[in-house]
Amino acid sequence: MMWAHALWTLLLLCKFSLAVLPAKPENISCVFYYEENFTCTWSPEKEASYTWYKVKRTYSYGYKSDICPSDNSTRGNHSFCSFLPPTITNPDNYTIQVEAQNADGIIKSDITHWSLDAITKIEPPEIFSVKPVLGVKRMVQIKWIRPVLAPVSSTLKYTLRFKTVNSAYWMEVNFTKEDIDRDETYNLTGLQAFTEYVIALRCATKESMFWSGWSQEKMGTTEEEAPHGLDLWRVLRPATVDGRRLVQLMWKKASGAPVLEKALGYNIWYFPENSTNLTKTLNTTNEKLELYLGGKTYWVCVVSYNSLGESPVATLRIPAIDEK
Predict the structure, then answer these.
(1) What pLDDT, in 10s, does the model give residues 59-73?
(2) Domains defined along the chain, listed by start
(3) Known Pfam families for this protein (predicted)?
(4) Taking a C-beta distance cutoff of 8 angstroms, is the pair 227, 175 a contact?
(5) DSSP 242-264
């Protein structure tokens, strides 16, 4: 008998020593998807043995409590659960505790506390227009629709990101909107003239730590201006027997000029140094010109123009033949 009792005790001890409780649920994170659900996740995401979970909630500022429905995925090693309307109360403060259970026992997480205002996540806004304002330089006006699923009375904070087309680098501005109009506007200033930009928006309620996703991108172009300027250079050919020289002039729009900038034509004038009364003028639509000049020092000036005006003057000095 004593031998049988000792064997039974040994088997019992082995059973307890081999028991493996589930890991304690940690890193609990909850998000209130406005008017859709209140969802919590936790780790570990997967247990070595079959584990099921029970998510306990208190709400209505602690006066009510319930358990997350098992079909919202606390069963079978799933590590998330969603509470659905109509039991989502806002504004409110919730507590959440996750209980993990397997064949060997139960272990509970710490109790976590959640203010719904601080974890609200809303839909992204919808941009419907990015256009310049007539007569306002280097600006586009962005118009968008405030998210339908957003608290009507809430101030929304926004991040607007923008970049030039084909650029890899985004820039951002942050602002808030206190009005509750369905259609919103923002004037984005300090841009390059006649340049196409890509715009996107995201938003969040003022108290929340969670941003919406980014809106679909929308493109718009700033107003055209007079040309930015020219880079001008020349190639000097040897003088002929009569003392005349072939000067090949070439130019292009200045570095940093808007990519879309186009000139309708170019005005060129040139004169011997200190003899402006001998100025000659030419016009061309090409970006190069050949001049035959005498052996003196000359000055050459070129401007580009479009329907809005002229560029700053690009000037070039042509040295005299005998100048060292």
Answers:
(1) 999 999 999 986 545
(2) 21-120 (2.60.40.10), 122-221 (2.60.40.10), 230-318 (2.60.40.10)
(3) EpoR_lig-bind (PF09067)
(4) no
(5) TS-EEEEEEEEEPTTS-TT---S
